[in-house]
Amino acid sequence: MAVGLKAPTTLHPVKGIRLAATHSGIKNDTAVKDLTLIEISAGSSLAAVFTQSHFSAAPVQLCRQQLSSEPASRYLLINSGNANAGTGAAGLKDAIECCAAVAAATGVSRAQVLPFSTGVIAEPLPVLPIKSAIPELLAGLEADNWLAAVQGIMTTDTLPKAVSVRLDVDGKTVSITGMAKGSGMIKPDMATMLSFVATDAEIQPDSLQQMLQQMVAGSFNSITVDGDTSTNDSCVLIATGATGARVDLQHAQFCQALQDVFEKLAQAIIRDAEGATKFVEVNVEGAASEADARSIAFTIAESPLVKTALFASDPNWGRFIMAIGRAPLSQIETNLLDLYLGPVRLLHQGLPDPDYREALGQAEMAGEEIVIRVNLNLGHATARIWTSDLSYDYVKINAEYRS
Amino acid sequence: MAVGLKAPTTLHPVKGIRLAATHSGIKNDTAVKDLTLIEISAGSSLAAVFTQSHFSAAPVQLCRQQLSSEPASRYLLINSGNANAGTGAAGLKDAIECCAAVAAATGVSRAQVLPFSTGVIAEPLPVLPIKSAIPELLAGLEADNWLAAVQGIMTTDTLPKAVSVRLDVDGKTVSITGMAKGSGMIKPDMATMLSFVATDAEIQPDSLQQMLQQMVAGSFNSITVDGDTSTNDSCVLIATGATGARVDLQHAQFCQALQDVFEKLAQAIIRDAEGATKFVEVNVEGAASEADARSIAFTIAESPLVKTALFASDPNWGRFIMAIGRAPLSQIETNLLDLYLGPVRLLHQGLPDPDYREALGQAEMAGEEIVIRVNLNLGHATARIWTSDLSYDYVKINAEYRS
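C-alpha cells for the assembled complex are given below, as produced in the milestone run.
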C-alpha cells in the first residue's frame, strides 16, 4: 500500500554506532524481528524529544528521568509488539528490569540504558523473552546492521523506513543515518512514534538538543495520519563525534543534510500510513501567524470528509473550505483566500475561479501525490505538512488490529 | 444502518404552523422530495442559531442579516441537495431570488422569508426549479404535514428525524414538534445541520432565544460524527403562541419537554450517522472545568482509532487513554483517573482495575449502544456527548458522495 516508498538500499554505518536485532518472542510470528539494541560509543552526545501525551508510556517516563540526571546513555533497547503504556508501576518496573539486564551484561550502569517500546497499549511487557534475547543481541552488534535494526522496530509498517547520507565536513566524511517506524496513531506532538538518527560528526550536547528540536519541527511535528498522538512517541539524535568533524547549528551544509534525513523519514511514515493510497502535502501561505497556518493545515489534513474525498480522487473542494471554515483562527478574510490543487486555482479571492473546470481538478486528484495550497493573503506566516487519505483499509487495519 | 432509530409515527400539528414539501428538481430522483416550505402565523416569535464556520453558506448569511433588522419571519424555505455554500455573491443573489418569489406569491416582504439549504457544497443553487415549485408548495400547506416536510430536507439521512410531544400548560394542550436532518459533516458549532422546532405556546422573543441556546448546548452542540462542522448549520425554534399558553425559562415542565425534543433529535442524527453501527455516549465527570470535560469527551469521540475500535466491538481501552492523553486540558492527574465501559471499571486511579477481565469489556462493546465513562476525580465539571463509530460504510458513503 505504501505510496512512492521503497525499502532502503544503502545505509551507511555511523562510526561509533553498532546495532543488532532479533525475534525475542514478543510477537507470535517467529520470522519477524521484535527487539533491537543500539550501542553508542563512550563520549557521544544524545538528544531526545518525547510525546506530550498526559499518558506517556513507562519507557518514555524512564527515558525522561534518566536523561535529566544520569551519565551519558550507552545503549538503546527498543521492542516492538508491546507499547508498555497504560501499565502503571508494573510497567516502569518491567522497563527497568530489561535495562538492568543490558547493564549487567555490559558493565555500564542501568541508567545508561534507555528503553523504548511500541505496539499494543495496555498489555504487560513480556520481560522474560526480552531478557533472554540480550546475550544474542550483544553478540550480534555490528556497525553495518541498520536494516536489521529498523526491521526490529516495525509494527503495522509495511516497509522499513531508513535514510542515509554522507557529506564532507572539513575534509572528513561524515555519515548521517536514521530510521523511523510508525504508520497509524500518527500526529506526533514532539516526535514521531519512534525515530533514531545518528551521525559521527561531533556536536556539543546543548547544540544537539536545539538542532533536534529544529529538525523535528518541520518533519515529525508536521505530519498527521489520523490526528491521534501516541503515548510512546520518541525521537533520538546521536552524535558520536567518532570522525572528529565538529559541526553546530551554523553549519549550513550539515544542517541541510540532517534536515533532509528527518524530512524523508517523516515523509516515509506518511507514505506508509495505514491504508494510504495518497501522499498529500498541505501548504498554507499568507497567514497572520504560524499558529493560524498550522491550524488550517492540520484541520484540512485531519478532516475525515477531506480524507475520504482524497481517497476517492474527488476534487470536492467544498470540503476544503468546510475544513478551513471550522479551523480555530485568530484572523481570516474569506474574500482574500486563494485555494489551489497543485498548480490549478480553484478559488480566487474567496470565489470560484472562473477559469476552473472540474476536469482540471480531477487530473490533480488522480495522481498518488497531491498538493493542496491555501493562500490567506493576510500575512507572511506559512506551514507545510504531510498527510494521507482515509481508505477502507485504514478502517480494516484498525478494526482488526488486535484480532 | 440506523442504530435504534425508527421513522417517526405521530407528529402533532402545532397551531399556527403549516407545512408543505415537494420534488422540485434539485435532486435527480423524482421520487424524492427536495424542497420544504414552512408557514408561520403572524405574531409568532422565532429564535435561531447558526454555524460558526468562517465560510458560512449564503442562506446562513442572509438569515443572520434578516433576523438582525427585519420584521417577523413568516416563511422558511428549505432545500436539500444543494448547500449554496462557497458560491460567493451569486449564491446570495440566488437565495434572495428564491425568497423574493415566495414573498411575491404571498404578499409578505422578502425579508420575512428565511432561506435554508443543505447538500453539496460549491455548486450553484438551481433557482428555476425552486421558483417553479412555489405555487404547488403554497397550495399544499397543511398543519398536519410534518412528515412530508422532514422528508424534504433529508440528504444522506436514511430515516426522517422528527419528535413530537404534548403537554398541559395552565389547562391548555401545548404541542412541541421538531425535525432535524444530518448524518455526516456533523460537529455542530451552534446548531446542527438543519433543525426546526415549533411550539404553539407563547414565549417572548428574548426568552425564546435564551431557551434555544440552552437547549442547543446539551443537544446539537454535544454531538459529533466526524468532527467536521458544516457551513450550513442552522437551528430554529418557533413559538406561535396560538394556544395562548404563556411559558418562559422558569416553566420547568415545558423546558423539560422541549429539552427532550432537542435531545432526541440530536440523538437521531447520531443514530443515523453515516455508516454508524454503534450509538455511543461519552460521559466525563470530575473535571476541573467544563472545557476540560468537553475536550476529553470530544477527543475520545473523534479519535479515528477509538472509532474503529468501536466498529470492531474491541474493548481496546489503550486507545481511550491515548485519546485522553492527547486532549488539550488545563489539569489532569493520571493517577486519579477512573475509566468505565458501561458499569465495568477498566482503570482505577490510573491503573488497570485488578478485577477487570477482557470478557467483561467485550460484552459491553458487543451491544449497539455503548457508554464510555471517564472520571477525572479532580473537580465537579461534567460533559455528556453522543457519537458514532467509524465503519467501512462511512468511507464508502463519503468517497462516493458526488459520484
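The radius of gyration of chain A is 22 Å. Chain A has two domains: 17-271, 279-399. Further analysis is deferred to the final report.
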